Amino acid sequence: MSQSLLLQNVTVVNPDAVFVSDVLIQNGRVSAIGNGLTGDIVVNGSGLYASSGFVDLHTHLREPGKEEAETIESGSRAAALGGYTAVVAMPNTDPAQDNVATVAFVREQGIKAGLCEVLPSGCITVGRLGESLAPFDQLAKVGVTLCTDDGNGVQSESLMQQALVAAKKLNITMAQHCEVSEMTIGAAMHDGECCSHLGVPGWPAEAEVQMVLRDIELVRRTGGRLHLLHLSTAESVALVRDAKKEGLPITAEVTPHHLSLQDTLLKSFNPIFKVNPPLRTPRDIEALKEGLADGTIDAVATDHAPHAGHTKEQPLDVAPPGMLGLETALAVVNTAVTLDVQKLAALMSWNPARIARLESHQGRPLAVGEPANIAVWDTTSVWTVQKDALASKSKNTPYHGMAVRGRVHHTIFNGELVVHEGKALK
Length: 426
Ligand code: DOR
Hints:
- The protein has 426 residues and is an alpha/beta fold.
- The chain folds into 2 domains: 97 residues, Roll (Urease, subunit C, domain 1); 301 residues, TIM Barrel (Alpha-Beta Barrel).
- Helices cover 28% and strands 23% of the residues.
- The chain is built from 11 helices and 19 strands.
- The strands form 4 sheets. Strands 1, 2, 3, 4, 5, 16, 17, 18 and 19 form a 9-stranded mixed beta sheet that branches. Strands 9-10-13-14-15 form a 5-stranded parallel beta sheet.
- A hairpin with a 2-residue loop joins strand 18 and strand 19.
- Helix 1 packs across helix 2 and helix 5 runs parallel beside helix 6.
- The longest helix is centred in the middle third of the chain and has 18 residues.
- Bound molecules: (4S)-2,6-dioxohexahydropyrimidine-4-carboxylic acid (DOR).
- The site of (4S)-2,6-dioxohexahydropyrimidine-4-carboxylic acid has 12 residues, from loops.
């Protein structure tokens, strides 16, 4: 028998109830919930919430290929510090995750790090080149549940249609990065009032909306399951809302940065704010928040995109798009949007767990017998983000120096305390 771990006097956040209790963990599972429990290791949970661990549908871990920016180990540590007990690893690695060997490597490295579950996604097309379909049947056999060319949208309608047909047959999900690439050549910021006079090619909302529109029609035709990555425009939210009313099998995510930062930040030409899709207008931000509130958007996903200093600290037009997200996600979302704790847990944990079909994170409540993947957090602590204090190998956070509210205190993965009082234990 392993040592037992007791979360004492914590406020459990479950889908059906919020209540104060002790939670006892042993042998990787919740072994008791009730008052007056005892355990070998005791963690004080007074004033803190405990929910199922957070699940990120959209993490760039950069390994294999760009270990200077992040490794599976450093990214897993950042995830655990953010309260995540599972992350979906994006496939724009080198080599890309379009084959069984690379997928197995990523999963293995995740197990070795032992800080959270790393679920590799597969590609939609070979090499993410948009030319031929990845071997979905082989990928599905080794446990891939979600395929995406993230970083690129699948431009060919015919290939995307075939991918959705396969998705239905194999019970997997196609996750689309919605971007019509011929509309965003050279673009570095939103195409709108704020920035169109700055002399940098703009990134029109239409580039996203056109692909959302096309793919909704493809789902109507095929019945394949589609997840829409990092939505950023008001029009996309409206389209998804209608598609859901029709009963189409579509889910959608939004990032913390698209909820909290607006396009005017790019007036500074600071590449820290360059991201794909770009930061949008207050009107878009409002629509994204409404989408969260009414269930049109199912999940918050970080799009954690580490970039090494020498690449990100280049002029705006050449710097790569992307920003860190894992360690600040809860706080940024909690600061930007007013959500009750059950809704927060649904967006950060239960819904993304269901979308990724993660068996040990099925969006289930904390209950006796369930796997002990738990985040312990609050919504009131105010702290200032310091880039050098982050565990990620890269430091490209747009929140450096910013005060945010809400904090992850402890993370329990597979029954083991991996983060205690905001510090990673391994
Ligand atoms: O900003 C982004 N960065 N968006 C993406 O879709 C890809 C990502 C990356 O890989 O850096």
